[in-house]
Amino acid sequence: MIITKLNLTNFRNYQKLNLELSPNMNIFIGENGVGKTNILEAASVLALTKSYRIGNDMDLIRFTKQKAKIKGSVKKGRTKKDLAIEIMDKQKKVLVNNKQIKRIADYIANLNVVIFTPNDLEIMTGSPSIRRNLLNMELSQISLEYLKISNEYNKLLKTRNEYLKILFTNNIADKTYLDILTEKLVEKAVFIYKMRHLYLEKIGNNIDVIFKNITDSSGVELLYKPNIEIEAYEEDAIRRALRHKFHKYYKKELAYGMTLYGPHRDDFTFSYKGKDMKVYASQGQQKSAVLSYKLATIKIFEEYSGSSPVLLLDDIFSELDLKKKNKLLKFISKDIQSIITTTDLKNISKKALDNVAIFQVSNGNVERCEKK
Length: 372
Known about the structure:
Elements: E1 2-11, E2 14-20, E3 25-29, H1 36-48, E4 67-76, E5 79-88, E6 91-96, E7 99-101, H2 104-107, E8 113-116, H3 122-125, H4 128-142, H5 144-169, H6 175-215, E9 220-224, H7 235-248, H8 250-256, E10 268-272, E11 275-276, H9 277-280, H10 283-305, E12 310-313, H11 322-331, E13 338-342, E14 356-362, E15 365-368
Parallel strand pairs: 3-13, 3-14, 8-12, 12-13
Antiparallel strand pairs: 1-2, 1-4, 4-5, 5-6, 6-7, 9-10, 10-11, 14-15
């Protein structure tokens, strides 16, 4: 899967920008604050319909303008699609081949992306909710069923929490309705647990190999940590474990007025040589491990969707020494499309830049550089 053209209108600092991208590696060079990351962000919004940087769509619109538009021509094998997203005040339109798609869920997966940014260090050091959101974003791209069931789970969770509060304050409220909600929640949770476990297991099978390629060191593992004890990730075993928790801790949930067990309380951690990387690893090791995680997801996207995602790497070389920079560029497959931002390419091996499209970015202007 590749983006052949990317067109921006009143997006961030770009009044108008038309780009033709290489099917391989595209590197955007420029000082901080000139708009490099905005290009990468636009590609991610085109895929996911929302920014990974902010929660307010209005901030994506160029100052004083009323609407921003991102268009992209996407190619998957022999299939070509024109995707577009229009962002307006309190409204957003998504289009495929100039036809508006009413449900976001029906638009997702037209373009798959894997994103790495400097803030992704929080995947390791931040709260469990950051890691859960990451899993949901990635799994929703490769499985429409996961997206659907995850949304249904969240709606049921909200309803169950509200009814727990009613039961706590109203002695005559009927617990039978709670039992119905609980059983429905359990069935959705079974699917989510299985998908997350399988996904993290597949990443775990590749993450240390990639980490070693980048750092010449090994010993990285992923550990899935749901907040219930699951003997085996089979439907009946998960179902029994979750039902047991809800039955045993009914009064505790009632007192708290919320659902205390389930995949909405999931977590996973990184370990290095048996120790928690959040506590014992250097920042450089943490960054390399998170980057290895992201690169390990590529094979899973290929397995589920039949094509490679577009790799988006923002400010990728910060905090990496020269050796690791060259090893990383060498490792990134030329068989997939990547969009990379950096402040410079000083001392980067010329061989590593073979078949690479290089763009210079300065104050909203983007020019493709001719190689010497």
